[in-house]
Amino acid sequence: MASGSNFLRFWLTERPRDTFLSYIPKEELPAFRLACHDFGVRAAPLLFEDITITFRPSTFTKPARMAALGRIGHHIQTLTFSMPHTPETFLPPLLDPVTGEEVTFIYEPYTQSTRNSATRLSNPIYGSWELTDLLVKQYSPLFHAAANVPTFIRAFQALPTLNHLKISCPNQEAGQRYRRSIVDYALISLRIAIERCKLPLLSSLSLVSIHPGAALYLNPTMGFGARPNSVKKWKQIKNLAVCMDSIPFSPYPPSDHLKILHSYLHVFASSLRNFVFRWHGSNGLSPLSLDKEICLQDRSPGMACPRRCHLALRPLKFEKLRNMEVENIVVDASQVSSFITAHRHTIREFNFENTHLRSGTWDQALAPLTRISGSEKWKEKAEEVMDVPLLFSPVDNEENKAQDLVVDYFNCKPRGLRPSIGAWQRAGARSRDLFWGTPEHMKRFLRTSIFSWR
Length: 454
Fold this sequence. Notes:
With 454 residues, the protein is α/β, with parallel strands linked by helices. The chain is built from 20 helices and 11 strands.
């Protein structure tokens, strides 16, 4: 009885209970919740704070799934929306069944949410009854689920505490880059749902693995179904991370996807504080200086839209940017210098990982730091390093403990968030202690070493 009362006192104290629950592996939480009702209630926030949804035809349409989402939605803080490119997401041309000719399909999102079946059936979803009939017969249920905007809206209405949205659409083949797939229709529905739901805590967006065309369908200023106030919702985003399939670098790379990317980043110019961008694959152009690229200033009259294409791109300037990292890019020293100068009043840390200079040197690229600080003392605090794990044998034969320490260090260390120019890095006190230990530890080690340290 006494032990039961002690446990009850412990369980009803919030801080010890939450600390205890945080140490339970997530894969064991479902079994833990089955012990009793209160265990299930207390463990639910930890179990459902981060979930992944892989989109399928019944993801947002099956009543049981939506009911379950309604029960746990207020716990969800991080949502990963995953929809890989597969043969099932490929869309063939829409053909007339009589003549065999290709039918033009101009998509306009259908956003009316009608629970009355009579009203729903009285209005064609895709503009006309003929076109709707062709799409139903020739396209798979996955397409119709991706284009069902009202179901996306109902799903996100169940997530009032969402603060981090991750989108993953990997595995697009290069040959399909200029074709619209089912994934693109899902991104349109996802964007509209975000814009029309109340998500006051949403502040982080991670495009984990996306194709270049995704920037068009996620752009609230030029995307399908966009409204005049669509941009307002995306102004909440303060942290943006993008990992995009690379557009191979060449003297004259395709400019359309780069212009779309430039326009998309402009949406976050007034609110973004932390920005990470990485090209997946081969090196690409810097997304921060596309307005200075010659290939995007071509005024050839052979362009599809000559009046629009000759207009110069607006320079990209983030008004509140504090931390920036780009990886796997090709850039000029002058472009790096211009970016640092333009953001000198707000930026605190910038990282250039796996960055290659087409022209100039890193001294020229980082020259604004000397002008801003008034001296070159900042160079004394930076050194070019490479990641080489180094660990001395512990003095008290605590080998296992030391190995665990190093493993925990690398697991906790954010990948790619190292200040560098290929790698300019500051070694903090905590990092030195993890590798070298305290001064007393080093003295004991050197005294007992097989080497002679005098």
